[in-house]
Amino acid sequence: MQPAWGGPTTPGAPSAPAPFPPPNPNPYAQQPQPGPYGAYPPPGQPFGAPPHPIPPAGAPGGKRTAVIIGAAVAVLLAAGGGVWALTSGGGGPDGPQAHHSASPAPKESTGGDSGGTAAPRDGEDDPNEGRRAGEAKVLVNQNGPQVERAGSAVPGVWAFGDYVVKTVQEKVIAYSTSDGKEKWTIALPKRVCAAPANVTDDGKVVVAYDSGEKDSCGNYAMLDLKEGKKGWDKPIPKSGGFAKSFIGLDMALSGNAVGAAWFGGSGMVRVSDGEPIPTPGLEAGCSVDGFAGGKAMLRSWQCVSDSTSHIEKLDTSTGKPVWTYDGRKGLMTKKIYSTEPAVVSLASEDKKSGGVIALKDGKERSVIDLGKEAYTPTCGMSIMGHDLGGCQGVAASDSTLYLPTGGENSYSDGNEIHAFDLDTGKRKWASKKTKPELMPIRAEGDKVFAYQRPSYDKAGAVVSVGPDGEPKAVLQAPQATLQAENRFFGAKYLYEGDRLVIATTRLSGSGSEGGEEKLLLVLGKG
Questions:
Q1: DSSP class per residue in 472-522
Q2: Is the pLDDT of residue 5 over 90?
Q3: How far are the Cα atoms of 281, 284, 335 from residue 30, in angstroms, in the given order?
Q4: In Å, how far are 66, 118, 335 from 289, measured between CA atoms?
Q5: How high is the pLDDT of residue 240?
Q6: Cα–Cα distance between 136 and 313 in angstroms, integer?
Q7: Is the Cα dihedral 297, 302, 308, 310 positive or negative?
Q8: CA pair distance 47, 73, nearest whole angstrom
Q9: In whole numbers, what is the pLDDT of the chain averaged over residues?
Q10: Are strands 297-303 and 306-314 parallel, antiparallel or unpaired?
């Protein structure tokens, strides 16, 4: 028997929310197009704060468009009798700082010629000179190049061995963390337009670059990051009845496979040779939402006759499903926070119902109980919504999901990180409230590493937080990099091998020869 409605809705929310439906036994039901990213709240509780971009313009980290999970409409879970709530903010990369201009630069240059390394440029102070006790060392300090088009995307950054590798327009450049200098450059015929977040264990990755036709991200190239060489180079295999270009293409890598989805098509290829990997066929009227990679390859798909997304774990050698989750009727995959363990964010098209769930072997492991709190993972902008694995500010271990709280005043008031048990969905512990706010970037054992954003007068840091809830600094950025941390138009954060990598994802076009805009900053112990 379906339970009666619970709890009052948040003020301003619709008074008659629809119940959260039970899992759909039929994989082909009915389905709308994916909208902005969402995540949901908890069983038995009305939602938290309304969506709001954070922090204000001019604050460190810029105007972040975030996914806010919490407080909008209370919705009952038919299966399990809990109430879920959902608020969805838009998705976008970290926005420009107040000092950035949107006007395009007069010319385009690429690579490291606008440069900077760990060593100072003429007229610039050495960021390592006068480094205080306990501060990290600047390993790479690279300025952004001039670009013709404001907001130019520069996707792709990887930490591999002693290198940090960054795409820069039509080049891919490796910087050594020992001296900050360029070690090799791979030139491509056109601009890199899409790249996965991961590389293979032996340092290979596949990127997509422009084919020369308008709005066509139509070629793949395999790059060997260990050798600094380009391998195979092929047109992307077309799939989908009406796909004549590759608009909105987003990529994911797992094992020896790269999956990509775009407007009107999708497919997987082998990293080793670029040959197609067959993926499960879909009925007419069905399409792929996107892929998410890492430890596993997940694919989400939906049909126009079914308001439900279905999620598959694919064997990266054969393309065959290892398991399939047939979803809850009326809910679509908005984001995949983790592939192994599988943790996904679902929402209805009108964003009035949804939630965050953990999956295991194609079945629901738990529903994450988010309560009234607002949570703000930061999800990058994806033109057609295919970048399912593109969220930052969320981390997961085998047993625990970590989410940051947030809201209108999270930058000024600080925030917390909450740890959720993936077997029960219940909150295990909360960190101490910390200013400036924390952003989870990596889970390890029973703790999570988080980037603490810089304040107006103090550089950022990497902290670890465990069950005692006390943030402990493990890498303090030097005070000399305070301005550099704030000069990213949009940023990707990695914490690998005790190195903090901050890399731009988009160039504003406002950089000058002096380098107001940053391309890459790498900090480490030393």
A1: EEEEEPPGGGHHHHT--SSEEEEEETTEEEEEESEE-S---TT-SSEEEEE
A2: no
A3: 17, 12, 19
A4: 20, 41, 10
A5: 60
A6: 40
A7: negative
A8: 6
A9: 78
A10: antiparallel
Distinct helix (H) and strand (E) counts, the chain? 2, 38
Radius of gyration, alpha carbons of the chain: 22
- Res 363 pLDDT > 80: yes
Q: Please, what sign has the CA dihedral across residues 334, 335, 339, 343?
A: negative
Contacts of residue 91, defined as CB under 8 A and 6 or more positions apart, other chains included, come to 36, 37, 65, 67, 379, 380, 381, 382
Buried b (16+ CB within 10 A) or exposed e, 388-400: bbbbbbbbbbebb
What are the C-alpha distances in Å from 75 to residues 33, 78, 360? 21, 9, 24
Contacts of residue 247, Cβ cutoff 8 Å, sequence gap at least 6: 215, 216, 217, 262, 263, 264, 383, 384
Q: Which residues contact 249 (CB under 8 A, 6 or more apart)?
A: 193, 194, 208, 217, 236, 260, 261, 262, 386
- Which of 482, 439, 438, 488 is closest to 459 using CA atoms? 482
Spatial separation of the C-alpha atoms in residues 477 and 213, rounded to whole Å = 43
Task: Judge whether 503 and 166 are in contact, CB under 8 Å.
Answer: yes
CA 343 to chain centroid, in Å, comes to 14
User: How many residues make up the chain in this entry?
Assistant: 526
- Which of the residue ranges 84-93, 204-213, 283-292, 471-480 would you say has the lowest mean pLDDT? 84-93
Rounded alpha-carbon distances, angstroms, from residue 297 to 204, 316, 343: 17, 7, 13
Q: How far apart are CA 460 and CA 309, in angstroms?
A: 39
Q: Show the tokens assigned to 1.
A: 């028997």
Question: Computed from CA positions of residues 34, 38, 43, 45, in that sequence, does the dihedral angle turn out positive or negative?
Answer: negative
Please, are residues 44 and 370 in contact by the beta-carbon 8 Å criterion?
A: no
Residue type, 380: G
pLDDT at residue 66 above 90?
Answer: no
408 in Cβ contact with 59 (< 8 Å): no
Kindly provide the b/e burial profile for residues 283-300, where b requires at least 16 CB atoms within 10 angstroms of the residue's own CB: eeebbbbbbbbbebbbbb
Q: Give every strand in the sheet of 447-452, ordered side by side.
A: 438-444, 447-452, 461-465, 472-476
pLDDT score of 12 more than 60: no
Cα–Cα nearest to 118, from 144, 139, 145: 139
Residues 6+ apart with CB under 8 A from 235: 211, 218, 219, 220
For residue 333, list its beta bridge partners.
346
Of 430, 434, 396, the closest CA to residue 413 belongs to 434
Q: Using alpha carbons only, give the angle 172, 124, 127 rounded to the nearest 5 degrees.
A: 75
